[in-house]
Design goal:
By secondary structure, the protein is mostly helical. It has one domain. 53% of the residues lie in helices and 5% in strands. The chain has five helices and two strands; from the N terminus they run E-H-H-H-H-E-H. The protein has a two-stranded parallel ribbon. Helix 1 crosses helix 4, helix 2 packs across helix 4 and helix 3 packs parallel to helix 4. The termini are far apart.
């Protein structure tokens, strides 16, 4: 008997944040999320992540008061990134996916942002 398959969570913000955690810096990922996604998308992603993954690994969810400001959204996005890192470190990372019809709701990444050496 094997272990349970990983949970699949469909969410653009979480998929992008998880990809950013694996391929970029936290600061770049936070800025890209806040600059691209709406406050509702970020808050919905936070609520979904804690709702699906509250298994003793994640810290208590912090509901930031000023999520309409860039600072508040950066803090909320930072909470999401920290939670994704904790899930990865614990071996409990779900699969974050995006529906094909939502691919246009992901920030584009420039090659220079991916490569540490620019020509």
């Amino acid at each position: 008997m094997g272990s349970d398959p990983p949970m699949i969570i469909l969410n653009n913000v979480l998929a992008y944040a998880a990809y950013g955690v694996a391929t970029s810096t936290s600061d770049h990922t936070k800025e890209a999320c806040v600059d691209f996604f709406s406050s509702e998308e970020i808050i919905d992603a936070r609520d979904l992540l804690w709702g699906k993954c509250e298994n003793g690994i994640l810290p208590k969810m912090i509901k930031r008061q000023n999520t309409t400001t860039k600072k508040g959204l950066l803090l909320t996005t930072s909470d999401i990134i920290e939670a994704i890192q904790k899930l990865g470190d614990s071996g409990s990372m779900p699969i974050f996916a995006v529906e094909f019809s939502s691919l246009g709701r992901l920030p584009l990444t420039k090659p220079s942002e991916k490569c540490p050496i620019s020509l």
